[in-house]
Design brief:
- With about 150 residues, this protein is mainly alpha-helical.
- The chain has a domain of about 45 residues: Alpha-D-Glucose-1,6-Bisphosphate, subunit A, domain 3 (Alpha-D-Glucose-1,6-Bisphosphate, Chain A, domain 3, 3-Layer(aba) Sandwich), CATH 3.40.120.10.
- Helices cover about 50% and strands about 10% of the residues.
- It has a two-stranded parallel sheet with strand order 1-2.
- It is extended and about 50 Å long.
- The termini are far apart.
- The relative contact order is 0.09.
- The mean pLDDT is about 85.
């Protein structure tokens, strides 16, 4: 069986072309005009939480920053958190995967499991990142209506 080998330049060009598939963030100020709606809109697409007072968050951040050296990656803390979660959930630590937010974890899952030209299936409507990351990883995105 003869397998076609892709050279580095072609591979890189293909990967860079896929980056153009990513959809840029649309700022809320632009939403009203784009959808023809005149009432003020409340943004709820990026984990906003209007119920926690801003001052409480500021105090918590100041306290956390004072306890950490931001010049270094939190390698020791990562291990400690992984072990604590594993103990709490009664699973081996290697079953625990942590990320810097859901976007990183979604990307890691699609990268790990979606085969080239395979399918990623999700409900519709759903989080747009599923579709974007499936396309970047050369998988077909299939939506199933609720």
């Amino acid at each position: 069986m003869c397998m076609k080998r892709m050279n580095t330049r072609t591979w890189l060009r293909n990967r860079l072309n896929r980056l153009s598939m990513l959809e840029p963030y649309t700022f809320p100020e632009l939403w009203n005009s784009s959808i023809g709606y005149s009432e003020p809109l409340i943004k709820l697409d990026a984990n906003e939480n209007y119920f926690i007072p801003k001052e409480l968050i500021s105090r918590a951040l100041q306290e956390a920053v004072s306890e950490v050296d931001l010049r270094f990656y939190p390698v020791a803390e990562y291990r400690q958190l992984t072990e604590a979660l594993a103990e709490r959930l009664n699973v081996p630590p290697e079953y625990i995967v942590l990320g810097s937010g859901s976007s990183q974890l979604i990307d890691a899952i699609i990268y790990s499991f979606a085969k080239r030209d395979g399918k990623v299936i999700s409900l519709k409507p759903s989080f747009s990142l599923y579709r974007m990351r499936a396309r970047v990883h050369d998988a077909k995105f299939v939506e199933v209506p609720l």
